[in-house]
Amino acid sequence: MKIDVGKFKADIARVKGKLDVAKQLLNGREVMTGIAEHAKGIVARRTQRGFDSEGRAFAPYTEAYGRIRAKAGRRSRPDLLMTGQMLGDMQTSYIGKGKARVYFARDEQGIKAAGNSTKRPFFEVETEKEKNELVRVAQTLVKKKLKAWGLL
């Protein structure tokens, strides 16, 4: 059997072109912003359920703070939601090729988050499940764009 690789050069070039486009999309503003928005949602939902960035239940509130929360009609299980301002202040932005960030728009909320994170780390995406979720989001966004451009 004789195989002529030369006949496949056009196909190889076409596939390489699609891979180059996919790489550009993955590093671009739309996909990176989508990943950051999804990461923000992961952090907010997990935190509201009372779990830290490694999937463990938050350390309990002190007895004194627990009483303050009870008087305010809040639950005693830690969820970092006394007013909702901190988690509500999370924002995202594209900062360059292949980079986006999730941050707190106001210094006051960023300081509060840093303080909370010393005892109850929450502002990371650490578990394999969450990381894989972000990979799936990236794949979905890239595939959607490739299909829209007729490249898939």
Write the layout of secondary structure elements.
Layout: H1 9-27, H2 29-48, H3 63-71, H4 85-88, E1 90-96, E2 99-104, H5 107-119, H6 128-148
Antiparallel strand pairs: 1-2
Structure, described:
The chain is mainly alpha-helical. It has one domain (5-148). It has helices at residues 9-27, 29-48, 63-71, 85-88, 107-119, 128-148, and strands at 90-96, 99-104. The protein has a two-stranded antiparallel ribbon with strand order 1-2. The chain is elongated.
The parts where pLDDT drops under 50 for at least 5 residues are: none
Helix content: 55-70%
Total separate domains:
1
Largest sheet: 2 strands, antiparallel
* Helical/strand content category: mainly alpha
The overall strand count is 2
Number of helices: 6
> β content, as a range?
5-15%
Mean pLDDT across all residues, rounded? 91
- End-to-end Cα distance, whole Å, is 32 Å
List the strand order in the largest sheet: 1-2
Radius of gyration: 22 Å
Spell the H/E element sequence. Answer: HHHHEEHH
**How would you sum up the global shape?**
elongated
Summary keywords:
elongated, 152 residues, mainly alpha, two-stranded antiparallel sheet
